[in-house]
């Protein structure tokens, strides 16, 4: 039986390289690709893998470069700029698509392509990294415990981690966008740090604020719960500074300042190996129904980028083998609500149920 040939695009980026090294560690043989042919070729040579060089700015070249490829794991952000051309190339080449985005607009755009994906015989599965696999699986698990839920709340806390250049660049590119929640089935923009509350994580309570995490989009497609908020643990003083900064957000979006911020971001790298090995992510989820019944649980995972490398490569293996039907899917709908639990180092705690009056 011929082993499916799949590709990691953006393999020379921080997260793309982690995924490439994880694939090589498993003796998998993805094609490594990106627009920087020299950098990709160096990494491919080190890992004993094939490489290809192409830019998503050239649609014909992108489509041709997917010849013989069953699936692409797209790791080159910001996805608000790179996802659409890669998805288009995959649909034309009849090649499955996965990415590691956490951007609400990207999720929404890909979910609208369900019919086109089915017609092309292609699976589109965005968000197969830490954004949004653990939270999406938590949402699916909780919804299964309380099918009539009308509210979903998710939260996470990073203990000992940091962010990469690519993630920071995406945040800056998104300016002046600030926050978002889902209310009555619709995505609603809200101010930065719109709401704050104590979250009872498994390692103790932490103050957290609402953020525009991808689950504002994906959790609705997974569960159909109409009201969704996602929180990130943030020190109270930092949250207060963010609220004071909110009126200046439009200024940060202007090109002179945005370019300065992007230049600063370009000098950053992601967490080193020691941090990836030691940091942990803690998650909490809750659903409520109209009668007041509440169901909660917690989960913890490896550090976010370490988790992403393992999760994304595992997802790409499944999709490249044809384990996922054609169409647009959230991770839990494509790979099962227990997908996160099946990954190494992930711990799901028992469900807690409280009945309403």
Short characterization:
The protein has 357 residues and is α/β, with parallel strands linked by helices. Helix content is 41%, strand content 25%.
Walk me through the structure:
With 357 residues, this protein is an alpha/beta fold. It has helices at residues 14-25, 37-47, 59-65, 79-93, 104-111, 114-120, 133-145, 165-173, 215-223, 236-245, 249-252, 255-266, 273-278, 304-320, 331-335; strands at residues 6-9, 31-34, 51-53, 71-74, 96-99, 123-125, 149-159, 179-183, 186-190, 196-201, 204-210, 227-233, 280-289, 294-302, 327-328, 347-348, 352-354. Helix 4 (79-93) links the parallel strand 4 (71-74) and strand 5 (96-99). Helix 1 packs across helix 14, helix 3 (59-65) packs across helix 4 and helix 5 (104-111) packs parallel to helix 9 (215-223). The N and C termini lie far apart (58 Å). 49% of the residues are buried.
Lay out the secondary structure:
Elements: E1 6-9, H1 14-25, E2 31-34, H2 37-47, E3 51-53, H3 59-65, E4 71-74, H4 79-93, E5 96-99, H5 104-111, H6 114-120, E6 123-125, H7 133-145, E7 149-159, H8 165-173, E8 179-183, E9 186-190, E10 196-201, E11 204-210, H9 215-223, E12 227-233, H10 236-245, H11 249-252, H12 255-266, H13 273-278, E13 280-289, E14 294-302, H14 304-320, E15 327-328, H15 331-335, E16 347-348, E17 352-354
Parallel strand pairs: 1-2, 1-4, 2-3, 4-5, 5-6, 6-15, 7-12
Antiparallel strand pairs: 7-13, 8-9, 10-11, 11-12, 13-14, 14-16, 14-17
Helix pairs in contact: 1-14, 3-4, 4-5, 5-9, 7-9, 8-12
